[in-house]
Amino acid sequence: MTSPSSASPDGHGARLDAQSIRFERLLPGPIERVWAWLADADKRARWLAGGELPRQPGQTFELHFNHAALTAETAPARYAQYDRPIVAHHTLLRCEPPRVLALTWGGAAGEAPSEVLFELSEAGEQVRLVLTHTRLADRAAMLDVAGGWHAHLAVLAGKLAGQAPPPFWTTLAQAEQDYEQRL
């Protein structure tokens, strides 16, 4: 049995291999509306991070994270370093509106970035979002992104449903505990 916002019974991501994890969500459509929440900087800032996407694959861009603005919850001490504006640099890999968005993720000096692929497809009146994060360096990297994507996607699902999203930091902390056991 699936919930309205998840393609898996409990909404957790599935480990595909040692370097990849996939999340699926069923979101209120239409597909153009969900695409706008991925591609439009102002909408994306409300669930993940702002920043304008470039026009062509291969171009670099910045994502501006402001976790404090996602929900009203105050960050606990363990997440204090993330409760301030953060700028991250990425490269656009693919942009095929309204179905595919792919970009690089992370990659410190001398480290290859991982890759994030968002795929949208129609599922009746809903939209299936498949987020696949690949080329993760190790289990620690997978654990890091798993909890983050889980919490950010919960915020997105709430916003698209017109509901208050769950508290970001509480969702993140619980997801990190869950993934420590699952992955």
From TrEMBL:
Q: Which Gene3D superfamilies match?
A: 3.30.530.20
Listed Pfam families? AHSA1
Specify the superkingdom. Bacteria
InterPro entries, from UniProt?
ASHA1/2-like_C (IPR013538), START-like_dom_sf (IPR023393)
Q: Where is the signal peptide?
A: none
Domain Activator of Hsp90 ATPase homologue 1/2-like C-terminal, which positions? 30-157
The UniProt entry's sequence similarity note says:
Belongs to the AHA1 family.
Q: What is this protein called?
A: Activator of Hsp90 ATPase homologue 1/2-like C-terminal domain-containing protein
This protein's species is: Bordetella pertussis CHLA-26
